Amino acid sequence: MDVSVEEYLSNVYEPECDYVDGEIEDRNVGEKDHSKLQFRVQMLLNRIPGISIFPEVRIRVAPTRFRVPDVAVYLTEPAEQVFTTPPFLVIEILSPEDRWSRLTRKLEDYFAMGCPNIWILDPMRSKAYRYEGDAVCEVHDAFRTTDSRIIGQLPHIWE
Fold first, then answer.
1. DSSP for 91-118?
2. What does the pLDDT look like over 109-149, one tens digit per residue?
3. Is residue 40 part of a domain?
4. Cα 115–70–79 angle (5° rounding)?
């Protein structure tokens, strides 16, 4: 069923959904491990001064595409209600039902809009990855970002 951008933006979805070229796409959320890790990441990021943290916020990544990352971080808080500027950092937390092909499309959308830091966290395997456009690299040590204001070394998130 084709849904217009206006219809998507005027509706509330529980949980929030992605919108891709006229289609509403459900997001896999709601499991304990996913929720706990999302909360922990937000609390750890909250310790870093001067950033704005947004869980599950709509981001217009293209004219007919809206993505809702688990966590989005901005160096300067956007004025608009539905963000159109690229986040400094996007974090996606995997759920058991996530499919790699669908996740890859989301990551490509964030990258194409200019998001410089894209992290994928896997709570089931206690692993973290960084999406770099043409590759997904496992992160073995502290997370780092591309901005010197946030040499964002998060403490060990799996504890």
1. EEE--TT--HHHHHHHHHHHHHHT-SEE
2. 999 999 999 999 988 888 888 898 888 888 766 565 555 44
3. yes
4. 60
Question: What is the identity of the amino acid at 150?
Answer: I
HSE of 52 in the Cβ direction (CA atoms, 13 Å)? 11
Residue 4 placed within a domain = no
Sheet with 23-25: list strands edge to edge.
23-25, 18-20, 65-67, 59-62
**What CATH number is associated with residue 50?**
3.90.1570.10
> What type of residue is 109?
D
| Residue span of the structural domain in which 32 resides | 28-139
User: How far is Cα 132 from Cα 49, in angstroms, rounded to an integer?
Assistant: 26
pLDDT band (50, 70, 90) for residue 155: very low
- Domain-located, residue 144: no
Q: Domain tally for the chain? A: 1
Residue 96 neighbours by CB distance under 10 Å: 10
Beta strands in 13-105 (DSSP E): 18-20, 23-25, 52-55, 59-62, 65-67, 71-74, 89-93
